Q: What sequence folds into this?
């Protein structure tokens, strides 16, 4: 499903023309499609319908409270990794019973506020974190519900920066140590109740076999724990399903569901999923305008008004995100020209695309950077003192501002001006 389509050579989001949006709200801006988001919720719900499950959207992928509210309305929970994400989840009305909390560096204050909100469980990433959670739970008189995040040591076959489940990564507890920690924790830690096991092996996985390998290792652990009379209720398999950025072949949610349901069917546990990218990546575009064109040596540059501070993925991961002209559709036979699409930031690494074949560009042309909904705005910064872009949500023919464009005053908020 794509909710970004051309009508008479003009790119639309649902029933709204993107050039009208740019004229009204300025560029750069992020434009999300509500019907895409709702459809993704439905795709996950349908795919896992045959098994007890809870879909916990991974807030880091795109954290706007309005998006979280849409997910809450669709009965999703969320996966959080900080006190700030907990704050957002609460504002969106997501109940504690649908929140799982991952992350290697939870602070005492973050642990306390999550315990007070009654989250479903912590995904604990080290023995020392487990001890701290036990201590804090004891202090406030509650029992902490915990899953150990195990590191199954499988290669997710993705970009090294976003691979997390190999033994050289900082994440999780080595699966070989987990059994001992469950056993010792069950008898020694009064304020801990083990309710599940968790793993997350990486992001943008386009090959499903690492999911199966990791699931089988986790299942094996669950069966070993049962021999010690440790009965869990949840198996959390994290996020990671890849999405279409270019023309690559990517698996559907239902293919992932088939594998996981096949592996875990006979255990009677609730399956927890933490999808981020696959919920939101293709829900949004970032619009940016061509400011200048110039030729340097043998390169043709289009300098646009969005930079690495607005969309970091191309610079940080050399990630490919499709770029199209908003007011002209590519068609077979139309000539293409090679451009580097670069931003205004004072870094050579500030680019949105390198050596990209595009229709001829002119100053003032509007471009849409596609697949910008995941790790787009949520990784934006104020580098070069650039206010972060406006975020807009389209629902049919309606557009709403879900986050205002930042102002120069926002840039200096909290800075003191001397006496
Ligand atoms: N659960 C945990 C514990 C995670 O660390 C992540 C992502 C997810 C779930 C969601 O994974 P997803 O379904 O989105 O693959 N900034 C990078 C991606 C970093 C992923 C971090 N963890 C990028 O732009 O490609």
A:
């Amino acid at each position: 499903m794509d909710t970004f389509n051309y009508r008479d050579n003009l790119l639309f989001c649902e029933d709204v023309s993107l050039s009208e949006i740019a004229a009204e709200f300025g560029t750069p801006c992020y434009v999300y499609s509500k019907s895409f988001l709702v459809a993704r919720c439905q795709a996950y719900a349908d795919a896992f319908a045959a098994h007890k499950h809870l879909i916990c959207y991974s807030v880091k992928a795109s954290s706007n409270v309005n998006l979280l509210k849409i997910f809450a309305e669709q009965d999703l929970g969320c996966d959080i990794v900080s006190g700030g994400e907990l704050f957002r989840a609460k504002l969106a009305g997501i109940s504690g019973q649908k929140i799982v909390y991952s992350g290697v560096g939870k602070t005492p204050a973050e642990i306390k506020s999550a315990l007070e909100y009654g989250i479903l469980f912590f995904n604990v990433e080290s023995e020392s974190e487990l001890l701290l959670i036990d201590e804090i739970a004891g202090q406030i008189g509650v029992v902490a519900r915990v899953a150990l995040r195990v590191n199954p040591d499988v290669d997710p076959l993705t970009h090294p920066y976003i691979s997390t489940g190999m033994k050289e990564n900082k994440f999780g507890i080595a699966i070989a140590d987990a059994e001992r920690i469950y056993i010792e924790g069950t008898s020694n830690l009064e304020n801990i109740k083990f309710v599940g096991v968790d793993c997350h092996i990486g992001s943008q996985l386009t090959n499903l076999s690492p999911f199966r390998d990791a699931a089988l290792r986790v299942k094996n652990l669950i069966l070993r724990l049962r021999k010690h009379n440790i009965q869990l209720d949840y198996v959390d398999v994290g996020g990671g399903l890849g999405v279409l950025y270019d023309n690559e072949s990517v698996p559907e949610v239902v293919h992932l569901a088939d594998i996981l349901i096949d592996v875990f069917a006979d255990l009677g546990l609730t399956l927890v999923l933490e999808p981020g990218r696959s919920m939101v990546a293709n829900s949004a575009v970032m619009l940016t305008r061509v400011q200048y064109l110039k030729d340097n040596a043998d390169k043709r540059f289009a300098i646009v008004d969005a930079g690495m501070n607005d969309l970091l993925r191309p610079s940080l991961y050399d990630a490919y995100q499709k770029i199209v002209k908003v007011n002209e559709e590519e068609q077979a036979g139309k000539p293409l020209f090679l451009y580097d699409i670069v931003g205004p930031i004072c870094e050579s690494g500030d680019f949105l695309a390198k050596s990209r074949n595009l229709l001829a560009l002119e100053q003032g042309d509007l471009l849409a950077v596609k697949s910008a909904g995941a790790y787009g705005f949520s990784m934006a910064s104020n580098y070069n003192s650039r206010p972060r872009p406006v975020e807009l949500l389209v629902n049919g023919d309606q557009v709403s501002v879900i986050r205002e464009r930042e102002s120069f005053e926002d840039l200096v908020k909290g800075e003191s001006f001397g006496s």
The longest strand covers residues 284-296. The chain is about 30% helix and 25% strand. Residues 4-32+281-411 form a domain with the Lyase, Ornithine Decarboxylase; Chain A, domain 1 fold (CATH 2.40.37.10). The chain has two domains: 4-32+281-411, 34-279.
